[in-house]
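Archive entry: two folds, one per protein. Generate the first.
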Amino acid sequence: MVKSLGKAKKDVVIVGPWQQIAALVDSISNIRLMGLLSEILVMGEYDGRMKVTGQLDDLPKMIEEWNAYCIVSLMHKMEKNTRRDYWKWFAEKDIPVEKFTSVIHHNTNIPMKWVDVGNGCIIHPFVTISENVTLHENVILEPGVFIRPGVEIGRFTIIESGALISEAATIGSAVCIGANVVIDPFVRIVSFVDIPPNTHIIKDII
C-alpha cells in the first residue's frame, strides 16, 4: 500500500508525466484521480490510462473551481532551464502549499516524528531518511536514496536512485542529483544545478 499525507479523500490532478509515478499513485486509497495536465499531449488524449484534462495554466482554475489538489511529477529528469521555468511558474502563481499532495511508499524508512516532509513530496520505495532532515515542497526521492541526519533539500529537487546525501548537507531548489551520486558532509549546493550520475561531490557548489 502507498500512502499520501492526510486522511480525507481528495480530488487530484497529476501535473506532468503520469508514467513516472504510476506505480505509486495507483495504490493510494484516499484520492480520486481527475486527470492529467500536460504541456506535450493534447486535451482528450491519453498517457497510458490517464486522460489529459488540461495544461499547466489550467491548474489554478481547477484548484479554485474543483477544489482540486495536485501531484507534481514534471520536474523529473527535466533539463535545468526547464526546471527553472517551472519553478518560477509555481512561485509566481502562488499556489497554496496545502494543495500539493505528498505520496510516500510504505516500504521506506522515515522517522516521521523527526523529519519535516513538505507538501507534494514523492518518495519511492527503499528510501532511508535519518532524523532532523527537512524536505521542502515537491521533492522527489527515487528508490534507494539515503539521506543522513541534518540535511536540508530545497523545493522541486529530484534525487535519483541510489544517491547518498551525507550529514548536514544543504541542497538548493530545482537541483537534479543523478543516480549513485555521493554528497559529502556539510557540502552546500546552490539551486538549479545538475549533478551527473556516479559523481562524488566533496566541496561546495556555490
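Generate the second and append.
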Amino acid sequence: MGADDMRVQATYTTRVNINLMKLQPSRPVRTSFALAVILLATSACGSGAREAHSPFDGPAPSGASSAESQIRVEIQNLSFNDITVWSVRSGGERRRIARVTGKTDQTVTIGWNVAIGLSFFVEQTAGRSCSTPQIGVEPGARVWLQVPSNVGQQPCRAGRR
C-alpha cells in the first residue's frame, strides 16, 4: 500500500463521518417520534380496564335471547385431572360451558331456557366421563356441580342452591 492509497482511505473515512453527522434528525422530528411512541404505549395500556368475555361463560348477558335466563353454575372438581363440562338439553344437544383444572372450583354463568331441564356431561382429559340427572331451574338460579375424585366409578352430582 502506497502513501496515496492511505490518503484516499483517510479522506474517504472523513467524508463518511461528516455525512453521518449531517443525517442526524432535527429536533422537531425527534420530538414527534417521542410523542408517537408515548401515544402508542398509553393507548395499548388503556384497553386493560375492560374485562374480556370468556368463551366458556356461555353467551354474553347482552347476547342472551329473550327465552334464556342467566344461570350461575358452581363447579367443584375433586379429581386431580382436568375436566370439560357440557350443559345438556333435553334433546341431547351439548354446549361446552367450562374447562376446569384438577382440584379447583370454578363458577360460570350460562344462558339457559328455564323451560328445559338442565343436566351436565363431564369428561376428564384422561377419557372417563359421567353425567347428572336432569334438574329443574328457574331464572337467576344457582346450580352446583360436584365432580368426584374417581370419575366413572362414582357419580357426578348436581343440584340447586
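Annotation attached to the second fold: Residues 6-16, 46-52, 59-64 have pLDDT under 50 and may be disordered. The beta strands are 69-77, 83-88, 94-100, 105-112, 119-124, 129-131, 142-147, 157-160.
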